[in-house]
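Worked Example 4.2. Consider the chain below.
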Amino acid sequence: MSLQYILDGLFPAGHDVSVHGQLVAGCAETALGTVAVLGTTDAAAIGHDIALGLAGQVLDVVDQHPGRPIVFLVDTKGQALSRAEELLCLNGSLAHLARCVDLARRQGHTSLALVTGEAVSGGFLSFGLMADKTYALADAQVRVMDLKAMARVTKIPHERLQELAAESPTFAPGAENYLRMGAIEAIWDAPSAALLEAALAGQQAAGPAADERMARGAERGGRHLAVATAAAVVSA
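Applying the procedure from the previous section yields the following structure tokens:
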């Protein structure tokens, strides 16, 4: 699914979005007014350049367009994997991006993320899951780590991880499993202006609120212990 097709489906009233490498930035028109459009395309690996570039774009929106909603388009295969990126402390750049998204929220910017292709590990966490709500297209591939890679790291046999993935969404890749865990609010069959505008309107009406993802995960049977564990930590 091309970026142009996605943009045309989400913003039929018009959009002015440019692509610099694999970084997406611009604005678009909706029934609710102009929104900022930021994100990645072509399964980008998030290195310092993209992380800091996105962070700068978020700060520009906060500075130049107070209160403008932000729509994040997520297509990333995760953080860039190289010794150079790690030696330059990529974790710091990813954390900076996450803090910028949080700053936008605290400054009154409603945000929504839509997974359009891949959404993997730190690249996804740093801005896709930092949005107020996260959605995914039906053919999106969402995961923290491939099961074979997980087997190498945990020393748990791949076959056993496959069995666990069949029983628990916390081990399993796929948008449906992240929906069950509450990380994804809903899955959309196709890019839709009506769905996007309804999601933004609902979030704007709700206003700043506590993160409901743990509660959603409990309701959907994907995370049984998170709510009770968090409550116990807070009350300790």
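The longest helix spans residues 48-64. The longest strand covers residues 70-79. Compare this with Example 4.1 before moving on.
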